[in-house]
Batch of 2 targets.
Target 1
Amino acid sequence: MVNRRQFMKGSLAVSLAPLLKGCTRPPRWEVSAYRRPERSRVAILAAQHYDSSLQEVILRGLKLFRVDVRGKTVVLKPNLVEYDPQGVINTHPAVIAAALDAFRSLGAREVFVAEGPGHRRDNEYLLTASGLYTVLKEYRARYVDLDTDYALPFTLRSHFTTFPQFYFPETVVKADLLVSMPKLKTHHWAGVTLSLKNMFGIIPSAIYGWPKNPLHWAGIDNSIVDINSTFPVRQFAIVDGIVGMEGNGPIQGEAKHCGVLILGDDLVAVDATAARLMRIEPTHVSYLTKAGQFLGNVTEEKIEQMGERIESLQQDFRVLPRFQYLKTI
């Protein structure tokens, strides 16, 4: 018995075959990389402060998606970039703590934190200064430095860059679920940085250097798409939008309160929704347009919003002048 999804995938392969035969250059993505669902769901949950009951908010969101992690290994991948005394750059430790608590309460065998900071090599400094070390100690949670973890090569499944393969850390490749936990921020090169861009942190700097310049030289937008299409582990996203960053992000921008957490299992749809919350048009963001062709949904009519209405929590995030075209009219 062939279900509708299998039929659509088979039809796509058949329809593309004549076009690809004899091509002098490879397609931008392989048929096997196509995984855009017919529709996606994204949860927008109000969370005004970091000292509120974030564990309950995240748990409610996970239950909306019926996330089953019983007996499984979950990796939380926050955005840990630089130390900021104002607490704006990095995913807030309180959100990470709440996620640790929520996944454990759902019966996960192990929940730990992993990151490969692209700027600082001193993880101990970043963990301590950011406040994340206190959370790890309190929850007795393991932390893995992905920059120096043993890495395995994976052949790319899309071809927006000219990399033949990416090396992914063994620790995250062996996990059952990777949760991208970015900060809601604008970006001085990509326009916005959310759950898809946050996956830069799984690329080991011990191989690609600090600050992972080969990914930048290949084009940030292109690298974002190729990393996410090739990464073999099931993904989920929890975006820290309680306090985000506007302007000259991802490091030098200003704090912007939004009072929201955004969750979903289609990272493209999550990022498109997060962009709309910032009053940024996601179809104008280069990497979202590319990823929206085959990895996930970008258009509003393909995304079912759960929780709060976007209009009730939207904030006008300032962008740099050269990204003014991203703003909705």
Target 2
Amino acid sequence: MNSPRSFWSLAKLTWVEIPRQPALLLLTTTLILFIGCLPFLITHNLGEPGKLVRDSSLALMFLGSLLLAVPSACHAVSSEIRGGTAGAILSKPVGRLRFLAAKCTGVSMVMFSFSGMAIIAILLADRAAARDFQVGWRFLIPLYLAVLGAYAIAGAINYLTRRPFVSTAYWCMALFLIIAFAYTLTLTGGEEISIEVPVRWDILPAGALLTMAALMIQSLALLCAFRLAVVSSLVVCSGVFLTGLLSDYLLAARATEELWARLLYMVLPNWQHFWMADALTAGGSVPWSYVAQAAGYAGAWILGVLLIALGCFDRMEIR
């Protein structure tokens, strides 16, 4: 079996199988719709229109990445090990390194699609919150229609062709959200309302940083998936997530005095490097040069975790 061909076949198989899980579609739909409702639920602006909506939307994307990455990674690895699929694949000329890399690539592709949909929803919600309800609803109706249309089309396709409803709805929603966002780029405040509502493109680098954090969580979930079930993996990843958020407060001062604190501070991911919502306040922006630096940090951390995962995988007996 050709090495590149087997790698991409495994990655594509993972990319196709994960969106067939109902939990993925339910979580993604809930997140998109809740972000779309935030401009109507949050009426305070704290001196800057859209700030609370933007910050809350980015926080939902951050939390949603954790809730999505863990079951996706566990389904990609642990379910195949328990079901014997992994043993059948490894019995062919497919090494464990290639198997792990393909699984990581497949899950990453799903995480990229999830992050892309979340960022589109955040851009629309931020644009809607920048003005009052009389103007903002024009940018959210296409979002709602994209979700409803995806479910309707997926239902029709499932009825006519028996294709899986869940994965079809997921990918239709991704496509329709792109179309909805492209349509809203042609909208202003309306012919009778001479108000220009620009797109806050500065959200893109902030969303890119959260996507990197999602890939870091995903790599940790892959490591846990070799030994733990979904619930146990979620507990471990949530613990690392919360500890990483508080690492500056808990370990920064002690790291200068005690060796254990210094080592733990270096190993734990510092999520504050990826949470740049405050930098967008008052028209601020996140430089793409900073995104590139954060990408180096995230890549090094992911590589280290995957190397540990490979070591654990090599010592596992696969039947």
